[in-house]
Amino acid sequence: MQQALLIDEIIRLIFHFSEEDGPATLNTLARTCRAWEGPALDYLWTRLPSITPLLQLIPGVELVDGTYVLKTTHPSPDLTRFHLYACRVKHISHRRKVQVDPTIISILTRECLPSTHPVVMLPSLRSAQLSTSNCDRIQACLSLSGQLSKLTLNLGFKARASNDYISQYLQDVVRTAPGLQRLSIRGSLPESLMGLVSSMSNLQALSLRLGSSLTTEALLAVASFPNLSKLEIHAGHIDAEDLFAAFSQKEAPLFPSLTELHIRAHTPVLAHILENIPIDALHTLRIEAEEEAGVPATWGPVFQNITTKAANTIRNLTIEHHIEVDDMELESAPSADTTSLSPGPPIINTPIPFSQLLTLRSLHHLEKFVLDTTLPPIMSDAELETLIKGWPELQNLDLGLAAPKRQTKSLTFRSLGMFASRTPNLKGLTLPVDINGMDTASIPVDSPISHVLTHLTLASAPPPDSALVAEYLRRLFPALLEVDGSFENDGEWRAVTTALGRCASSAA
Hints:
It is built from 19 helices and 18 strands. By secondary structure, the chain is of the alpha/beta class. β8, α9 (191-198) and β9 form a beta-alpha-beta unit. α2 (23-30) runs antiparallel to α3 and α16 packs parallel to α17 (414-422). It starts with 7 loop residues before the first helix and ends with a helix.
């Protein structure tokens, strides 16, 4: 054997890539020689989908009628083999309910610390996934470690009795895992546990999708975490005035380390939270506007705060707003830029005004922009060009596939020529544009002979001549590999992609 294959660092690097082949390959490698046994077993046991493999290491344990039981009369079975493999586990997921006889739990905890201390059976554990429906005492014990750095909890939103094991587990995490860095909770969180989450001030990443159980007080506590750099919160029930009052009482800076934010809330709440973020810190932002029935979204303050706080730093911006509208309302939605001139009560369901979108052109370092709305923005080719001029570093643009109907202005195939000329770094593009009427004579003379765009998605069906469409698109974007559209036009766009391949082959 080559001596290099006996060097621990080299062999572990090789085994790391062997994980992709599944457990059978690592199992074979572990049986090859003593030098490889330890590293191969480390990778084989580093990630477990359930506690079942660990239970099978306990002498005398068998599965009887769906429950693991101890089929031996020996009061203290030898757990050496269990601990030998348990110390290798770094990631565990409890995706299904595993029924375990209480006798087994008693045997496992007997050798651990006294009952006044949390029981740690997996000392090397780094991450755990738990859900209320699948958690009892043994799942909780096998999800705890002083080295735990990432925890995902799924509590569910259905009304059910509280899970005492989850409650005790979270308390044990606070006591045992001070280095916990990433926490994600989905579901209704009891008030008794909200205080525990609010006390985890060392967190660096936090996701709270708690429905209406997220309180303003908890949000205020989270905003004060000194090391929190990544935050996801669903706050659609939070009242803007209550939030303003709570934030006004806080003297220390809010969100002092935040760089990534994903938030769902009313637009006044979105605007107020963005107003309290430090200047030149945020580089990734995803906002989902969620308004009460009959209340229009107010985008102006939101966009103004984005540009005020993150014009020099933001790289990725996603804006989502989905509402319930019927087909007639979708087709006749007025331009939001003109509704203010109309007499009578305000129209609730309108697209985001282009004049407000234009505020975002000052985000000069933007690399990715996604606009996902039920009512698409109404703009002309020239207006879109004005917006795009402010984003010289743009790499991905997604304006959705819901093309506005029966409007006085809309995007045409000529906008593609603008992208070829104005966005040399663009790699992915999705547009609500109708490309009928395209011809090679309309290609701008200043289009570069090379462009990095590889993926294009368009709203309409392509013209019937797929070869002509492919030639036109390839003249604009020589690196284009794939073009597609909505589901109903999938077959036509596949024909265009095939034609693109033929164009590339003939050019080579």
